[in-house]
């Protein structure tokens, strides 16, 4: 029976079952080239065992000063900062969703069927997708000053092109029969979107928005380090004065908050699925 299976596999894909020497040599050359490139990058980045062991020694001493974690009598202030970070993430996500919905509709092939316009629009989204929230935050904090305002706008600007792409793909993959049914009944284009399109894509969009909210809650802490307020600012301040026990307390409390939000978001997304 094994011989029969082998003969069938040979008949279906002879090159996969018995690759030629040239194919094997090509694979070996590709693996060798990858290993050489990895070695060169490690040398360039000074990823040496000595650096690793030295860093572990310093890390051990740092962790020794961080135990036990302590709030330093600043628990109310830390909790307010975590709440501010969540508010930044929530506001940034809401603004991103509001901006991405019309862009997602325009970017869908089924809504705007012109290939040239669709290609140009998608490439424009790809261009802005290459700018991370941290870069936007550095620019906006310099323009608007320290505080959460720049962080909220940075999160929104970073998420809009990503959500717009996901929304447009969700619209393109809907079942066309309900849409055609509403259109055949003589409904206006706006009502076609409302009654034929929205019921299908709304749960998908809501699930994707919740997923981005999770990521923004984590990203907002990083933005705080560059001056956008929130828990990141508190953490950077503790590290700067070498109060590693308080920094450890902030990190642990923030991890619990992130885990709680992820759990809640996951349950909500299950109900939307």
Description:
The protein folds into 2 domains: 2-47, no CATH class; 73-272, MetI-like fold, CATH 1.10.3720. The longest helix has 40 residues, at 189-228. It has helices spanning 2-12, 14-17, 21-44, 49-66, 75-107, 115-129, 133-144, 148-172, 176-184, 189-228, 231-240, 244-272. It is mainly alpha-helical and 273 residues long. 84% of the residues lie in helices and 0% in strands. The chain contains 12 helices and no strands. The radius of gyration is 26 Å and the shape is extended. Residues 82-265 form the ABC transmembrane type-1 domain. It is a multi-pass membrane protein. Belongs to the binding-protein-dependent transport system permease family. InterPro entries: MetI-like (IPR000515), MetI-like_sf (IPR035906), PhnE/PtxC (IPR005769). It is found in: Cell membrane.
Keywords:
Phosphonate ABC transporter, permease protein PhnE, MetI-like fold, mainly alpha, 0% strand, transport, membrane, MetI-like, transmembrane, 273 residues
In a nutshell, what does this entry contain?
By secondary structure, this protein is mainly alpha-helical. The chain has helices at residues 2-12, 14-17, 21-44, 49-66, 75-107, 115-129, 133-144, 148-172, 176-184, 189-228, 231-240, 244-272.
Q: What is the strand and helix layout of this fold?
A:
Blueprint: H1 2-12, H2 14-17, H3 21-44, H4 49-66, H5 75-107, H6 115-129, H7 133-144, H8 148-172, H9 176-184, H10 189-228, H11 231-240, H12 244-272
Helix pairs in contact: 4-12, 5-8, 5-10, 5-11, 6-8, 7-8, 7-10, 8-10, 9-10, 10-11, 10-12, 11-12
């Amino acid at each position: 029976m094994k011989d029969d299976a082998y003969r069938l596999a040979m008949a279906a894909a002879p090159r996969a079952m018995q690759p030629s020497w040239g194919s094997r040599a090509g694979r070996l050359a590709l693996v060798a080239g990858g290993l050489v490139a990895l070695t060169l990058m490690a040398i360039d980045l000074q990823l040496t065992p000595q650096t690793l062991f030295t860093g572990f020694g310093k890390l051990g001493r740092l962790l020794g000063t961080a135990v036990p974690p302590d709030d330093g009598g600043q628990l109310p202030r830390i909790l307010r900062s975590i709440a501010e970070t969540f508010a930044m993430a929530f506001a940034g996500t809401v603004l991103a969703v509001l901006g991405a919905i019309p862009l997602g509709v325009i970017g869908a092939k089924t809504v705007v069927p012109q290939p040239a316009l669709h290609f140009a629009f998608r490439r424009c989204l790809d261009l802005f997708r290459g700018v991370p929230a941290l870069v936007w935050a550095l620019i906006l904090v310099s323009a608007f000053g320290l505080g959460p305002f720049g962080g909220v706008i940075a999160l929104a600007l970073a998420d809009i092109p990503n959500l717009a792409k996901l929304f447009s793909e969700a619209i393109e993959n809907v079942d066309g029969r309900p849409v055609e049914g509403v259109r055949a009944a003589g409904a206006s284009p706006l009502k076609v979107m409302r009654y034929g399109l929205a019921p299908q894509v709304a749960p998908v969009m809501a699930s994707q928005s919740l997923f981005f909210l999770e990521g923004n809650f984590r990203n907002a802490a990083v933005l705080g380090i560059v001056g956008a307020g929130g828990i990141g600012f508190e953490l950077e301040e503790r590290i700067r004065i070498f109060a590693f026990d308080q920094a450890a307390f902030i990190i642990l409390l923030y991890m619990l908050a992130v885990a709680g939000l992820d759990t809640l978001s996951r349950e909500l997304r299950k109900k939307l699925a």
